[in-house]
Amino acid sequence: MQTACKPMIHVHYVHRTLTAFILLTIAAFQPAAAHQNYTIKDLGTLPGSDLSTAGPINERGQTVGYSILANGEQHATLYEHGKVIDLGLFDGGTSAGAYGINERGQAVGYAFIATEYPHAALFDKGAVTDLGLLPGGDNSTAYGINNRGAAVGYSFDSTRASHAVLFEKGVVTNLGTLPGGFYSSANSINDRGQIVGWSTTSDNNQHAFLFDKGVMTNLGALPGGNSSAAYAINNRGQVVGSSSTAGGNDHAFLYEKGVMIDLGTLPGGNSSTAHSINERGQIVGSSSIASGNSHAFLYERGVMTDLGTLPGGDGSNASGINDLGEISGSSATAYSPSHAVLWSTERR
């Protein structure tokens, strides 16, 4: 897990491992079957693209992510009803990505302005709105949005430090850091206004936090570990993410009722990360396997299940799960390191 020494690499590229996953899957392609109860569907890409990812998914089956075009530009995308929709750019900008979506179909992420820096963005009804920055800052991104329209992410401040922020009603609120910390980022917000993410600490480690009623609480790490990050929280207050362990590898965790639980890995793997949890307590993420590649997993009732990949692919990553059990994410194919995918049980 990366720490605060390079905050932009951690915040902008490692979050939910959307891009890190692509790096993990450029290897020898080997076919893998999906879990017997799930079918996997390729959601495709924007025209002129052969690389796409998908992040969270709402109860309407809408999921968001991005596609990388042939000219190298990255565009935020919405996947719904078999269509791949370009969510647009700021005037003069050339790149955008979407990382969160709520039940109203409002998506958040970032878009580059005419200068070289990204700004947190709201994608809603065909419009792209700048969510703003902390005073003196020049760079921000939003990662999550709740059903009230409150979004969270990070913004640089006047000292060039990235801080967790709340974007709400046109105001950007600095959530600060854990005591002694310098960097932080918020990754998810539930409908109760509880926020989770990560912050550096006085000993320069990175720890998961829960921000509730104005107080940022350190969630600690798994036994023997010294770093962690929280990526999602549901409306029951259950938190998931990843933590280092005594063995030195990161493991997916579930945090509830003051206890951080190690979810382990897929058979033969040594590292894992949990990216999303629904209201039923089902958890999805990615885990290494015996071959060293990364596969998407579903964790429920104490069992972690390999969700497999698209035909010809050797790696996959699950980023979101709704209460119907539909799972969004990415998979390598026989000819691309990443396509947005949907795992489903034919319920819809």
From TrEMBL:
InterPro entries: HAF_rpt. The keyword Signal applies. Keywords: Signal. Residues 1-34 form the signal peptide. This is Probable extracellular repeat, HAF family.
